[in-house]
Amino acid sequence: MCPEETITQKFTVTFVSANATSMEEFSGNPGYQLGKPVRATNLTSLVPVTTLKLWKPVGENLCSSANLTPLLFGFNSISGCIMEVSLADNCTQLREEVAARLNSLVQVSHVGKRGNARRNISDDWVEVLRLNASSSTNTSEGSLRGICPDLPAHLNIQIITADVGAIEGIPQEEILGVQLSFSTTTWQVGCALACPQNATSLPISAAVQFIKVPAHPPVPKTRFQINYTEYDCRRNDVCWPELFYPM
Fold first, then answer.
1. pTM of this prediction?
2. I want to staple 56 with a disulfide (CB 3.0 to 4.6 A). Which of 4, 67, 232, 243 is the partner?
3. What phi and psi, each to the nearest 5 degrees, are found at residue 132?
4. DSSP conformation class of 109
C-alpha cells in the first residue's frame, strides 16, 4: 500500500424500540416525585395499575360530562361538579347516588407506597381506609319534600407521607397511609316556586390533603428533659447550676 493512499470507513447505527408502548410509566424511583400521579390498584382483582383521580369539569360543570384528571403527589387540591337531581328521588336514593359518584374517584383498594410500586409485589401497596358517613337521619325531617339530611356531599382524601431516606442527596418520599371520609350536609331544594322539568342541581366536591409526618415516631422525652426548664438559667430567677457549681 502506498503511503499516499487512505481508507474511508462508514458506520451506521440504528436504534430499534421494542414494545415501547407497553412500558410501564412510574411516578418515581423509588420514592414519589412531586407532581407525579399517585399510583393505585385493586389487589382483589386483576385490574392494571391506575391512579387516584379528581374531576376536571368542562362546559356547564356537570358531573355527567366532567373529565377525570390524575391526583398528583404532594399537591393539595379540591375539585367539584354539579349533579342533576330528580325531585322524584327520595333521600335514600339520593344519598346512594351521591356516594357512588364520589366513590367513582377512588375505585381501588390500595395505593402505591412508592413511585415505582409494582402490581405483583404486595408490600409495595398500602390499603385505602374508608370511613362511612355518619348518619343521624331524622325520619320526619327526611320525609319533607325537598329536604335531605345527612347527605355525603364532600369526599375528604387524606394521604400520609414521610421522607424515608435520600439517594444522592435527593429525599425519597413514601405514602404511609390513605384515608377516605365524607362530610355530610342537609340539602334543600333551591327552587323558589317550581323547578324546571321536575329537577334541580346539587354541588358535590372532593378534596385531597397531603400530611407529612416523621418516618419514625419521635423518641419520648425523659422526665429530666421535660423538667429541664427548671434548671435553665435564662428562664429562672435562680440559676441552679451556678448555685451548685459557682463560677
1. 0.73
2. 67
3. -70, 150
4. S
